[in-house]
Amino acid sequence: MVGRGSGSSSKATGCSGAARPAVHARSTARPPRLAPENSWQVAFEEDAYSVSILDSGDWAAPLLRLSYTSFTTPHTVLDIHMFTQRRVVRSVAAVGGGFRPSDYRSYRLWAAAADGVEVPLSLVYRLDTFGRNGLNPALLMVYGAYGTKYDPEWDSRLLSLLDRGWVLGIAHVRGGGELGYAWHAAGRMEHKPNSFSDLDAAAATLIAHNLTSPGRLAVWGRSAGGLTAAGAINAAPHLFNAALLDVPFLDVLGDLVDAGLPLTVKEWDEWGYPLTNSSQAAVIASYSPVHNVRPGVSYPHMLVTAGLMDKRVGYWEAAKWVAQLRAASSASHGRDISVDELQLEPVHSEAAEPGGSSDAASSAARGGSLSSSSSRHRRHGSHQALLLVTDM
């Protein structure tokens, strides 16, 4: 390419006969311009994917180098010629074990939140182990804070679950950055409860589409994503059978009123200013997970991790949460259902495919007919809340 000197092998010699370093002229020509009327959209076959721009080398080259990945596509580098639209795949990450992308389906589904906003979900499952009957175990993953994008990417660790019949999904709730700054703003400070209702709507939509059922649905969130999951569980515990909260941020109110903690001051811009703004303090108090565990309510099975040396999230937050869950469970008057008694009754919705009706999902998120039905079959034995503390 022009300007890099990789294409010349000529040498300039002096009177001594010693070879001099090759000299290459740098190109000063501007690259041709792509007129607006000739612009075109870079499209991909999959509905749910992650793509980013890479360094293409020579700034004058008419190539756009991209990194592309999805639930079913290992990390791929490709070049696109911006004038001819021709694509060339430069590299694909190797995957062993006989993996074939055609064995899986990845797609986008939309959930209607309580306020009518459409929330995107990225989903994947293995075709030969899937049935649209509500019997599939499912794991819903979430983050939803700081404007961070949680895009679907290749992760070989997920194959173990997919090959055993799991449906996996990411709920792109408000508070994240998947749909731009406005999406982030709609899930921060006094609008933070939107993140929780979005996740509940996502869970209810999976159930309404018969992709899983409350007795087979788990949720995972890490750090601020653990807060999102815990907030959604507090609001609608009947939607989930299990939860994994990884070093979760759970004592939101306690942390934000203690300016002496390492990260509190810089966190106010994301969550609110409870020391100076009473309305924001009230909102935080209304969802702070450790302050909103409901006695007598049957919660999902829970594994909560914490790190003794974690400088971002104190281990005591997870300890408080687990202690309160255990107290709530002991106060519950409901009878646990054994596995032998388990009778799954998936919702039969007209929305058999993405884009269909979400009436059943909305009902489930509000705790309507679906929640009363699911209360008979959600639990697999006695409720457990486990705390795992490491020295990390």
Task: Write structural notes for this entry.
With 392 residues, this protein is of the alpha/beta class. 23% of the residues lie in helices and 20% in strands. The chain contains ten helices and 14 strands. It has helices at residues 159-162, 181-185, 193-208, 224-235, 252-256, 264-271, 278-287, 315-331, 359-365, 369-374, and strands at residues 12-13, 19-20, 50-53, 63-69, 76-81, 87-92, 104-112, 118-126, 138-142, 167-171, 217-222, 242-246, 301-307, 385-390. The strands form three sheets. It has an eight-stranded mixed β-sheet with strand order 7-8-10-9-11-12-13-14. The chain has a four-stranded antiparallel β-sheet with strand order 3-4-5-6, with no helix packed on it. The chain has a two-stranded antiparallel ribbon with strand order 1-2. A hairpin with a 5-residue loop joins strand 5 and strand 6 (87-92). The protein is globular and about 65 Å long. Mean pLDDT is 82; it is low at 1-24 and 333-380.
